[in-house]
């Protein structure tokens, strides 16, 4: 805010120099280059044996186990829907909600577990294509259910979908918990 002179007129303040985005030679400063150089000094690539030991110690979580857990969770939601409402339409709706998550998830798992050893660009492209297939199939299943299933309970569909989708996060938490338990158990020996 400009300062006021005794007669009430605004007086210009001295302009503060703006922080420079360039070094004195006119080049852009890159503070990250130094950080990258510092990190590169501490980075040591693994040998083939070390990588094998690391893979054996931390095996990947099978997508098929996650899909199976989602299917079980969907069946549990359908059973709860039967216990709470006693209506067959609600059970069918819950099963449809579970199928909307499980079937596309199985397609993605099938697409991603084929052809190992491909280059990283191919793996990323394959993931993007199968993820798109997963989304299209899920939307198509929802549209078909809305048109073909009489007395569809959207609450049951949504509840089953949410529970089945939460299995992904639970699988990651469970995997981390198992690793921590194994690490603690190995430390006790």
TrEMBL record:
InterPro entries for the chain: ATP_synth_I
Transmembrane parts of this sequence: 64-85, 91-111, 123-146, 152-174
Cellular-component GO terms for this entry: plasma membrane
Topological relation to the membrane, as annotated: Multi-pass membrane protein
Pfam families: ATP-synt_I
Protein's UniProt keywords contain Transmembrane helix: yes
Primary subcellular site in the record, as a coarse category: membrane
Top-rank taxon: Bacteria
Region (Disordered): 1-39
Subcellular location: Cell membrane
Keyword Nucleotide-binding: no
Keywords: Cell membrane, Membrane, Transmembrane, Transmembrane helix
Compositionally biased region (Low complexity): 9-23
Composition skew (Basic and acidic residues), residue ranges: 24-39
Protein name: ATP synthase subunit I
Protein species of origin: Caldimonas caldifontis
């Amino acid at each position: 805010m400009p300062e006021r002179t005794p007669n009430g007129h605004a007086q210009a303040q001295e302009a503060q120099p703006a922080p420079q985005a360039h070094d004195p030679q006119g080049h852009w400063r890159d503070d990250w280059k130094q950080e990258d150089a510092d990190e590169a000094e501490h980075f040591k690539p693994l040998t083939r044996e070390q990588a094998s030991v690391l893979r054996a110690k931390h095996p990947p979580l099978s997508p098929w186990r996650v899909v199976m857990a989602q299917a079980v969770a969907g069946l549990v939601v359908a059973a709860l829907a039967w216990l709470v409402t006693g209506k067959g339409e609600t059970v069918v709706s819950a099963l449809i909600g579970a199928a909307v998550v499980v079937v596309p998830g199985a397609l993605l798992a099938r697409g991603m577990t084929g052809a190992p050893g491909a280059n990283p660009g191919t793996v990323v492209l394959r993931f993007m294509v199968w993820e798109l297939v997963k989304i299209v199939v899920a939307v198509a299943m929802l549209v078909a259910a809305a048109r073909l299933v009489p007395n569809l309970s959207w609450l049951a569909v949504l509840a089953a979908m949410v529970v089945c989708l939460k299995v992904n996060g639970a699988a990651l938490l469970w995997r981390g918990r198992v690793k921590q338990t194994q690490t603690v158990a190995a430390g006790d020996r």
